[in-house]
Amino acid sequence: MVKIGQIELGEFPLLLAPMEDVSDPPFRAVCKANGADMMYTEFISSEGLIRDAMKSKQKLDIFDYERPIGIQIFGGDEEAMALATQIVAVAQPDLIDINFGCPVKKVVCKGAGAGILRDLPKMVKLTEAVVKATNLPVTVKTRLGWDDDSKNVEEVAERLQDVGIQALTIHGRTRAQLYKGEADWSLIAAVKNNPRIKIPIFGNGDIDSPEKALEYKNKYGVDGIMIGRAAIGYPWIFNEIKYFLQTGNHLPAPTILQRIEVCRTHLEKSVEWKGPRAGIYEMRRHYSQYFKGIDHFKEFRTRLVTADQLEEIQFILQDVAKHYAAIETI
């Protein structure tokens, strides 16, 4: 049984990655319903929380059906991170996660996210400040290092464990790689196999199929896997991996009607949480993913991404159902 503090996550948990502008409550809802064992919010700026910035505060919204769930924060100032931790605790997450992995320039330039990979002593101090500011379990997500010449994740793991983190997720790329090239899990395995490391180690990067999940589980020995981009528009991946790990067999791929049903749920929750305008606009990035690989879908996709009324989108989804159901029965 993998545990973070007192949180029991099962024998080999599958975690939904915190993804900016993706891992919001509507998306998390469909991932939870399809097998995600643990989820995280989008990352939240510590400075934004302290300023009471509306966008940062909205990201604190969590719901009981999502549990266990972690709220992820980032920042480059110890005092701000400690204060943000106390603000976050009011939302009653199950844990607090620190982002030391985001490679985006606007975050890195502030000495936050992956920017901290160039300053390990500061990383340790920031982590310690968060740990001391809460009674909740604190976890960290990071990368292998800043670039190929500074892959220091083994030392990072030891030193962060020493100041009290209770789990570590490692993305198998450096900051310099961004999301390019193949993730290198060999260093993730080295951390997991380090006799000094007692906390759960989760691997992240390139897991996009049940076969790869099983291969990496066996080859690298991690305690669980975090899935990010492969879940966008395809939340079924969690249950598909679980079923394959248990049986060696594949679940049937989702039918077009199942795709429509989950897409509609996501849309409705998006409108409910964000309001009609933002909810509809921000769903547009998901349609191509939900219907990826469906033949001759371009016309429907165009209609979906240009519609600006919920009723109109619901009508288009009904058209999709009728069109492809007729094809499947031929």
Could you characterize what this model shows?
The chain is of the alpha/beta class and 330 residues long. The chain has 2 domains: 3-247, TIM Barrel, CATH 3.20.20.70; 256-328, Non-ribosomal Peptide Synthetase Peptidyl Carrier Protein, Chain A (Orthogonal Bundle), CATH 1.10.1200. The protein has 14 helices and 11 strands. Strands 3, 4, 5, 6, 7, 8, 9, 10 and 11 form a 9-stranded parallel beta sheet that branches. The chain has a two-stranded antiparallel ribbon with strand order 1-2. Helix 1 (25-33) packs antiparallel against helix 11 and helix 12 (276-290) packs antiparallel against helix 13 (298-306). The longest helix has 19 residues, at 256-274. The protein is globular.
Secondary structure: elements and pairs:
Elements: E1 3-4, E2 7-8, E3 14-16, H1 25-33, E4 39-40, E5 44-45, H2 46-50, H3 54-58, E6 69-74, H4 78-89, E7 95-100, H5 105-108, H6 120-132, E8 138-143, H7 153-162, E9 168-171, H8 186-193, E10 201-204, H9 210-220, E11 224-227, H10 237-247, H11 256-274, H12 276-290, H13 298-306, H14 310-328
Parallel strand pairs: 3-11, 4-6, 5-6, 6-7, 7-8, 8-9, 9-10, 10-11
Antiparallel strand pairs: 1-2
Helix pairs in contact: 1-11, 4-6, 9-10, 11-12, 11-14, 12-13
